[in-house]
Amino acid sequence: MEIILVIQHRFSFNMPFLLLQVFGEELIQLLCSREWTERENALHQLRPTIRVKLVGHDRHHRMTSDTVLDTADRLRVIECMCEILVATCSDPVYNVYVASLVSTHSVFQYHIK
Hints:
Structural class: mainly alpha
Low-confidence stretches: none
Number of domains: 1
Strand content: under 5%
Order of helices and strands: HHHHHH
Oligomer: single chain
Largest sheet: none
Mean pLDDT: 77
Distance between the termini: 38 Å
Radius of gyration: 13 Å
């Protein structure tokens, strides 16, 4: 329950359960960390996760177990990613801000086909 309160403080009120469902508790906890290095690392971890969830394979073109996402699931991933980017693009630490811009590029790169 504590993680839900932290997520609600950082992200939109309606998003905590969806964020946890889509990206997992560990990654979301890192994004909510007070340590900027953990937030930056979470954004770096997020990029390959986005690729797997939106494209269906990793950078080595290995198919993953959750490769086939229907349109609703893809939209859910994009909605969660946009929520994360809104929060991280306003981060006062430059490195986190840059990592969020790179993650934004990943969303557009893999979603717009």
